[in-house]
Structures are given as structure tokens and as C-alpha cells.
Design brief:
Blueprint (H helix, E strand, L loop, with lengths): L6 E10 L4 E7 L11 E8 L2 E8 L9 E7 L7 H5 L6 E8 L11 E7 L4 H12 L5 E8 L8 H10 L3 E7 L9 E2 L2 H8 L6 E7 L1 H14 L6 E5 L2
Parallel strand pairs: 7-8, 7-11, 8-9, 9-10, 11-12
Antiparallel strand pairs: 1-2, 1-6, 2-5, 3-4, 3-6
Length: 235
């Protein structure tokens, strides 16, 4: 199969979510027919070298004229600080879609998404995919983050809860700075309290390697079959 052709995308907006994280929308010259959970690569020319970086598509596949990316700025990174500071109408070369971390059919009675930080990006795309297409599955997002300011897209998740009866967000905060009604700790602390053994549930996990490994261990201890667990690692 031929690789997708690179194209120049234009920054439509770059919304700062925290001091280190932003949501960028890229308007495409050519529509991309992607599946939720897939990623694109940015191609940046530095010192006459093409630097490629992979970014999960965070937007709904229903919209093919643009894509959205969740960018976390790492000071030692070559590319993420540049994208974090991107201005409206800046041009960014991208290529894609790529990847096999996608929704599995047939859909099961329940679909549980487990994320930490910007690992929620591909899961956001998947959640919109299920909800907008009225898929008959209960959709739950267990979202772990450090402090209150790191609760990415909080209003969006709450609005989805109001709009769709089959969607539920479960925030888990590890370092609260004030009294909170959220679960306090790490997602692995609460999975045994939230999740029951079921053969009719699929799990999609995205985050740092250690978070994924720990989450898989907990799910397997509950009795979840490995075939029900689908993962995407990010660095």
C-alpha cells in the first residue's frame, strides 16, 4: 500500500489548555480519511534535516477537513516547543494517517477508556467516533492527571456527559491542591473499585509505559482477558 502524501496544513487555532499543553487545529489542504485512534507525523526541517514526530489525532473522524492534536511542551524536545508556540496561519507539513490502534468491531456492551495526561488524545477521537455514530455501547473514560489544572478539557467531558446518556467521565487526581470530589490517587488504585469482570467490555489504554503496564496488571488480576485490552504507548 502506498504511503499517504505529505501535505501543508494551516494552523486554524492553538488553544492553550495549561502552561505546557495546547490543543491545535490544523486545516488540511486535502481531506484525510482516518480512523479514530490513528496518528499523523509532522515533518520539520532543522539544519537541513527532516525531523519527524508522531502525534495522535485527537479529533473526530467525522471531520475530515481538519485534525486536532494535543501538544505537550517538553523543554528538551526539538519539536514540541515549536508546535506549542505555533501561531494562527502558520504552515506545518504533515503526513498520515498511520497506526493500528483503532476501535475493534463488533462493539461490545461497554467500552472503557483509560488515559493519563495527553495520552487522552487518541481516546478523545475514539469517544467522539462512538458517540456521534450512536454506537450501542456504554462509554466510560477513566482519566488520570496530577493537579486540578492538569484536568484537560474538563468542560468538554462534562458537556458530553450531559449530551449523551451512555457517556461517563471518571477523573482521578494524584496531587490535589485543594479539597476535591475526584478520586484521589492513581487510576490503578481505583480500577478494582470501578471495573467488574466482564467478557463484554473492551479496554483502550494510552499513556506512559509504566502506567500502561500497571493498568494491564490490575485488569488481569480482576480477570479481564488480554484480548479485551488494547494499548497505545507514548513517550
Amino acid at each position: 500500500m502506498a504511503l499517504p502524501e505529505p501535505q501543508e496544513a494551516i494552523v486554524e487555532f492553538n488553544k492553550k489548555l495549561t502552561s505546557e499543553t495546547s490543543l491545535i487545529r490544523l486545516k488540511l489542504q486535502k481531506p484525510i480519511d482516518f480512523r479514530s485512534g490513528q496518528f499523523i507525523q509532522t515533518i520539520t526541517l532543522l539544519d537541513n534535516k527532516k525531523i519527524r514526530r508522531s502525534w495522535s489525532i485527537a479529533s473526530s473522524p467525522k471531520n475530515k477537513e481538519y485534525i486536532e492534536l494535543l501538544i505537550k511542551k517538553y523543554e528538551k524536545s526539538l519539536i514540541s516547543p515549536m508546535l506549542f508556540k505555533a501561531n494562527q496561519n502558520d504552515k506545518i507539513t504533515i503526513q498520515g494517517p498511520f497506526g493500528f490502534f483503532t476501535l475493534i468491531k463488533p462493539y461490545k456492551k461497554e467500552t472503557v477508556f483509560i488515559a493519563a495526561g495527553v495520552g487522552v488524545a487518541p481516546l478523545r477521537s475514539m469517544i467522539y467516533d462512538l458517540l456521534e455514530n450512536n454506537i450501542d455501547t456504554k462509554v466510560t473514560l477513566i482519566f488520570g492527571f496530577r493537579t486540578e489544572k492538569d484536568y484537560l478539557l474538563e468542560d468538554e467531558w462534562l458537556n458530553l456527559e450531559k449530551k449523551y446518556e451512555n457517556f461517563k467521565i471518571i477523573p482521578v487526581i494524584s496531587r490535589p491542591e485543594k479539597n476535591t470530589e475526584f478520586f484521589k490517587g492513581h487510576v490503578t488504585d481505583f480500577i478494582p473499585k470501578i471495573i467488574k469482570k466482564s467478557d463484554d467490555t473492551d479496554f483502550y489504554i494510552c499513556g506512559p509505559n509504566i502506567m500502561i503496564a500497571d493498568t494491564m496488571k490490575v485488569l488481569e488480576l480482576i480477570g479481564i482477558n488480554k484480548k479485551q485490552i488494547h494499548i497505545e504507548r507514548w513517550q
